[in-house]
Amino acid sequence: MEWHFIIRFDQKDLHLKAERIYLSEQVERIKVMGKNRSIVLQSNRPLLRIKGLKNKRLDWKLIEGQMNNSHVLQAIILKLERLLKTATDLDV
Hints:
The chain is α+β, with helices and mostly antiparallel strands. Helix content is 32%, strand content 40%. It is built from two helices and five strands. A five-stranded antiparallel beta sheet has the order 1-2-3-4-5, covered by helices on one side. The longest helix has 22 residues, at 70-91. The two termini are 15 Å apart.
């Protein structure tokens, strides 16, 4: 599964591409790529879905790469959660 999205930061649009690179019953890993860097984020979304905990907050971890700005990381995570929610709604 692959998504293209834009986040606004510091009066600039950041064009990013995200791709699910790993999925198990407990975790999923998503690689987010920009113009000159990439990061890998891991969440516990599959585990929460199996347990039926729709309203529980996802636990995100930065597995690979570096983010110097926590605000950009939060914006990326929020956008990914929205994209995953709509993709999940379409799958079900």
